[in-house]
Amino acid sequence: MNFDLTEEHKRIREMTRKFANEYILPRAEEMERTGEYPYDIIESMGEMGMMGTPFCEEYGGRGGDWVGMHLCIEEISRGDPPLGGLLDVNTSVVGQELYVFGTEEQKKKWLVPIAEGKQIGAFGLTEPDAGSDPGAMRTTALLDGNEWVLSGTKQFITNIGLENASVVLVTAITERREEGNNVISAFIVPKDAPGFQLGKRYEKMAWKASATHEIILEDCKIPKENLLGNPSRGFSQHLSVLETGRISIGAIATGLAQACLELGLSFVRRGYPSLKSLHQSQTVPFKLADFAIMIELSRMMYLKAAWFKDQGRKHTLEAHFAKLFASEMATKIAGEVLRMHGLYGSLDECPISRYFKGAKLLEIVEGTSEIQRMVISREII
Amino acid sequence: MDFSLSEEQKDIQKAARKFAEGEFDPDYALDLERNGQFPSKIWKRACELGFIGIHFPERYGGQGLGLLENALVVEEFCQQHSGIGITLGLADFGSEMILRFGNDEQKKKCLIPITLGESVSSLAYLEKDKGDAITSFNTIAIKDSNGYVVNGNKSFVINCTLSGPMIVLCRLGNVAPEQHVALIVEKGSARVSASMVEGRVGMRMVPMATLIFNDLKVHQENLLGDEGQGRFQLLNFINEMRIEAAAIGIGIAQGAFDLALAYSKQRAQFGQKIASFEAIRNKLADMATRIEMTRLLTYKAAWDWDGKGGNFRLSYMAKMVSAETAFEVAGNALHIFGGYGYIVENQIEQFYRDAQMIDILGELGQTQRNLIADQVIGKI
């Protein structure tokens, strides 16, 4: 057993932390207020190789692993969780699905720019009636000569509103069956395909600089060769990369909670006059002690899941543990630290309010807590 | 023992609900919320109908009712829309200090316009560098021949940019040992500069500012009660306010619960309504139970206040429980909405944000537990 990070992992963590401190944290409040997409930050993240960490160099990656990727996601999220979300969707989910299931040609064409951060990928699974139950999806794809024709609506598509978002990986029904499950395939849908419509940008409580839209596919035509992977296994391909996405949410939540803990600690250390008594007392310090334990556990959980993945081992339980535990503890910690600050903590200018509003989302995206518990209980029973 | 509301109380509840349903238009409310704008029109209308200052005696423009009736109104308002509800609930913020400790003239002058929709009241007590020491002040009042000269800063002053009376808590500078005074100040003086505090997690329609007093002269007749009573008056008010804050919390929890319940009966996944899943059913059962518990405790605290003049222990308990209920229930309600919970137009996020404000309304968070402990433990 060895709990030390390798030199390379340490380097990634230090580099990303420095980047978050210098370039993300000073602007995070403004990004949340204006909702403007931080293209320059995203570009720098690409140039530094973050978007392709776990992929081999041949496909624009850095030849690293998933442990390194998730250390990077944690540190970026400590600065601003939506940027961690961008990395999750772009790399853990979209990049990986292309990397694992794409043809040589697809990888050259779509994965390389995504891994280099020149283009950004998006992922389309959720539909109006298919949220926790993606099996209820309605989007269809029909082969017409050399083209697939897609029809349907996908919701909550992260990253797709970015100017340099290139593709969205969409699942669609290719064959309806009277008995048993419909045949579902995954498709690479370029944003400029005919019939692709970028729907409304959501007005959200938080994550305002995250480019989330609805997309509408109205007889959307894509080349035949844009089918991704096994034509009858599109759904399970999508779910398999979401398993990694769950590790990533664990890392985002860990970074978010770490930022909150640091805010709580500096609040106490500043010796805010009233807290002289609190500092000597136990209520607040004991809470901070509990937070530090929960964050340490979350970090170990996502790292273990990522390490299992790097070892090629099954890691369903580990990924779901990490996502569920980390997201719930992040919401709790963010709320408690906000209240610790009193009215000052509620102000937009105080970073804790941004982390607080953003935290709850992590219990919802990439499978709600209920879905995590369903999977975990099914696995252990 | 009798747990039922009187006919009059039920009528008030119904009237408040009807008013809120009729006047709090969701689209209009969303605009107010986005811009952090005070809901002037709705507030004036609420005054016309006698909802604001309902607990003032009739001779001061009120309905001669109690804190319990005020709590019922605020609860109904917050249940319909927490943003507007909180703002209306706080439109007479601090006025109870005048109500309880002012002389007849001060009450006539200050309270009647509040009930008529001509003014809102403010209370300036928090100071940034004093943190949660809410009854300790750097703002200083020096006594001169006509009254007082005030210098200092106040933070998080609610309503202070709208017209109406403002109570300022100061320490009396040239008196030893240190005494506190509460002074009634007319807003708009050039000797007071205000900078608005924009952008908050919740309570976004409530105007809030930081104030600087620079040689502000206050006439002797504007002293509230006696010199040296300021601290006692403020604590008494805050305890009364805690019960109203608890009522806001119940309204928020109930409003969020209602939305989540309706959504869970309409949203289907895996071929059934999500309200039929045990995980969701358990959540809804817990939420309903917590709301009921909180309502019982809060009504008891209000009832006790109206009948016996206030049991501090009950008001601490009501506020603590209500704050916890509000953020737990609103959090679960948002969760039941899933991704849709984050979408502003679905209104559930409004409840979630406003729920965070109960605990920190007027003080640092999580102070109630210590206050209860003081009461429970006594001298060691």
Can you describe what's shown?
The complex is a heterodimer of chains A (381) and B (380). Helix content of chain A is 52%, strand content 15%. Chain A has three domains: 114 residues, Butyryl-Coa Dehydrogenase, subunit A, domain 1 (Orthogonal Bundle); 112 residues, Butyryl-CoA Dehydrogenase, subunit A, domain 2; 145 residues, Butyryl-CoA Dehydrogenase, subunit A, domain 3 (Up-down Bundle). Chain A has a four-stranded mixed beta sheet with strand order 1-4-5-8. The longest helix of chain A is centred in the middle third of the chain and has 36 residues. Chain A is of the alpha+beta class. The radius of gyration of chain B is 21 Å and the shape is globular. Chain B contains 13 helices and nine strands. In chain B, helix 1 packs parallel to helix 4 and helix 8 runs antiparallel to helix 9. Chain B folds into three domains: 110 residues, Acyl-CoA dehydrogenase/oxidase, N-terminal domain (Butyryl-Coa Dehydrogenase, subunit A, domain 1); 107 residues, Butyryl-CoA Dehydrogenase, subunit A, domain 2, CATH 2.40.110; 147 residues, Butyryl-CoA Dehydrogenase, subunit A, domain 3 (Up-down Bundle), CATH 1.20.140.10. Chain B has 380 residues and is an alpha+beta fold. In chain B, the strands form two sheets. In chain B, strands 1, 2, 3, 4, 5, 6 and 7 form a seven-stranded mixed beta sheet that branches. Chain B has a two-stranded antiparallel ribbon with strand order 8-9. The chains are: A alpha+beta (381), B alpha+beta (380). At the A-B interface, helix 9, helix 10 and helix 11 of A face strand 8, helix 10, helix 11 and helix 12 of B.
